[in-house]
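Box S1 | Example of a co-folding query
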Amino acid sequence: MTDTFPSTTLAASRTEPVLHLAEVSRVHGQGAAQVHALRTVDLRVYPGEFVAVMGPSGSGKSTLLTLAGGLDSPTDGKVLVEGQSLGDLSRKRLAQVRRRSIGYVFQDYNLIPALTAAENIMLPRELDGISSRAARQEALAALEEVNIGELADRFPDDMSGGQQQRVAIARALIGDRRLVLADEPTGALDSTTGEAVLAVLRTRCDAGAAAVMVTHEARHAAWADRVVFLRDGRLVDETGRQDASTLLLTAATNSLNGPVTE
Amino acid sequence: MSIRHGLLALLDQGPRYGYQLRVEFEARTGATWPLNVGQVYTTLGRLERDGLVVPDSEDEEGHLFYAVTDKGRAELRSWFDTPVPRTSPPRDELAIKLAMAVTVPGVDVHAVVQAQRRHSIKALQDYTRLKARALAGESTSSEGDDRSDLAWLLVLDQLIFQTEAEVRWLDHCETRLAQYSERQADLPAPSAASDAPKARRRTRA
Ligand SMILES: Nc1ncnc2c1ncn2[C@@H]1O[C@H](COP(=O)(O)OP(=O)(O)OP(=O)(O)O)[C@@H](O)[C@H]1O
Ligand SMILES: [Mg+2]
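Box S1 (continued) | Returned holo structure for adenosine-5'-triphosphate
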């Protein structure tokens, strides 16, 4: 029996993490009104790795993701993407890293209403100097990957929530980004569509990208190699990737209660 | 879980012998509920006694084929037409454990919840890997296997949804516990706090 998820454990332990949150803290506000959204969180995500972040509302999941994506800066600690500390980069360079290396799926999609689905997806590529023709080709392929190829020329307002969400995902996947960050990317999707999107993320990671996904749903988190748990801004637990090679069928069988009865 | 009806359903598609029934049963359920050949023959014996199947023919290798009777077919229809009973909920060890954990002093309920959550999510990861593989196989499999691949996927989905429900319940328990602790912390005087549990116990009993 072969595992469909490649075992990258050994390779990963030797290579550099795509994302490294190094003892990162984020405090909002001042004095009595201070909120410790993240407290000295250390997290490394390696090439090929898919990490899910779970935790109660307000535990700091979105904060972690915005820091990882360079949309916010830590009050303490460093965020490194492909070895570069985001805090050390010029504005221009940071924008470039965000465009080229990081795909970000926002919880509320963040599509530009005046642009069609395809144009929304093409935008970061065109900003990077790719020709419109080539960018459109990529956009169409990305839309095809999330099963809405036929909606390329629709505007966001003329799409359902789940369709917009898939456009947002396609936008994050385009252009071979090494790091995909997704905040509840399956929130608006029915169970089979959600599964299809997770399978796409899974495939990206199997091809060498790294992904961090925030989710409330254990069923979705289960597509990840590793699930980390946040509580009150701290990483409190995780299911490790070293567990990934457990003999699957045995595990599946053992966890059923009791023997078969007639 | 009804082996009886499972075997009837297979025999409804034509006569089969014992070992064949076992293989086909497991193909449809991905060996989630492994059967041994002994169980198959015992069940066939009972089905025959009840007039639901009859020994049909024997091949050159000595395999005894069984066929479903009209009565057996009627029994199978009525199985499909009747919902699976949900009478008394099965005794659930986890529910009992948590019920005990919140009442026994000195138990770290959060640790109990988190340990279980970890374990259940690991099981979910295992099921999901099997599913990813089944989904990948779905697109490449030969036509004849399609239906049993589909059956196996549905069984996996059921395991996944059931485990997810458990994790959601654990999340819910934690939120409820947190609310409860907050309310306890808000109670005015320390003496009132130590009286409160007794009073509650009396009213509950
Ligand atoms: N700009 C801000 N100013 C003040 N407090 C903030 C700000 N952003 C987030 N917080 C606080 O930081 C904590 C973590 O918020 P965060 O959005 O990361 O939670 P979350 O885990 O994503 O929750 P949810 O599951 O509800 O999305 C919360 O207590 C929140 O109120
Ligand atoms: Mg959030």
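The interface with chain A takes residues 1-4, 30-35, 39, 42-43, 46, 90, 114, 117-118, 120-130, 132-133, 135-136, 159-161, 163-164, 167-168, 171, 174-175 of chain B (CB under 8 Å). Strands of chain B lie at 16-17, 53-58, 64-68.
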